[in-house]
Amino acid sequence: MPKRHSALAHAAYHDLLRSLRDEGLRDLRGTPTLVQRNGRGYWYDSFRVGSEVRKHYLGEDRPELTARMVALRDDRAPAQQRRRDRARLVRLLRAEGFLGLDPTNGSLMAALAGAGVFRLGGTVVGTHAFRLYEGELNLRLSLEQTAQTDDLDIASFERLSLALEDAAAPPVQQVLADFDFAPAPSLQPGRTWRWRQTSGNALVEFLTPAFGEEGLRDLPALGVQAQALHHLNYLIADPIPAAVAYRGGVLVQVPRPERFAIHKLIVADRRRAEDRMKSAKDRAQAAYLIEALVEDRPDDLAEALEDARARGPRWRERIEASLSRMPETAALLTALI
């Protein structure tokens, strides 16, 4: 069975996450404004700069977000004290064995968060997301599982990026340039979705769901292009916030763990022929999360599996192809139905 952190560490993580989420709703420069677009509501901090009204995106309209804005309206805790409290929580988490990020990845993640990448819909996917389930699911990951990748994958919906009247500041391309990243060549001159660090091996990739043919799409809110991929719409639907235990904490968002696990079954079969090592890694991550979720969140996992299987025969074929190589995981999922 998966090993767990202490109850103290789990509580400290959620305290850190709550503080980071609340920070984005404090000290509004103007008036919270609800804007309706295509049947969805979006909250903005609307304020005037000279004769111009500017909008700072706060989040999609949900009862939980509204309640937090009301609760924080009268909270006057000093900013310096809030930062100290978060730093103390991060130290506690590290002492309890929580994973951290090295200075390069940590400072890059913090800079992207500061520019608004995750506030504007960016979702961390891939191995970095898997590592961040440590706090959400209270998992103590093993040395083998914590091998850090130099690749940072960020996904976002094209339609959300188009709908938001806000943009990253400073621009994402400037943030990447500050960390010595340069655009990697692509088949379309002047357009790229991958940025490689010139002084190291780090790679940042931007992705978006494909509704139709795969290819490059614009993400206006982030000011970058992204590679459109099938099955990604399933993965990043309804993402959740996550806290990175770096310095005073960094707020990002990741896919729901049950969707991440089932998606890994799909991509493991999709790239089994071209990259067997990555396919095996995908299956290992899926197996570990499924074992944890069967214990903690079986209903969520069953719903995610049912959703994926209902999306068509090709989805079902890929899931079953991976599970045919994972008999113990297949038995766990069969018992859910």
From TrEMBL:
Pfam families: DUF6788, NTP_transf_8
Residue ranges occupied by any DUF6788 domain in the UniProt entry: 25-65
Coiled-coil positions: none
Boundaries of every Nucleotidyltransferase-like domain copy: 106-308
Record's signal peptide: none
Protein's name according to its UniProt entry: GSU2403 family nucleotidyltransferase fold protein
Source species of the chain: Paracoccus rhizosphaerae
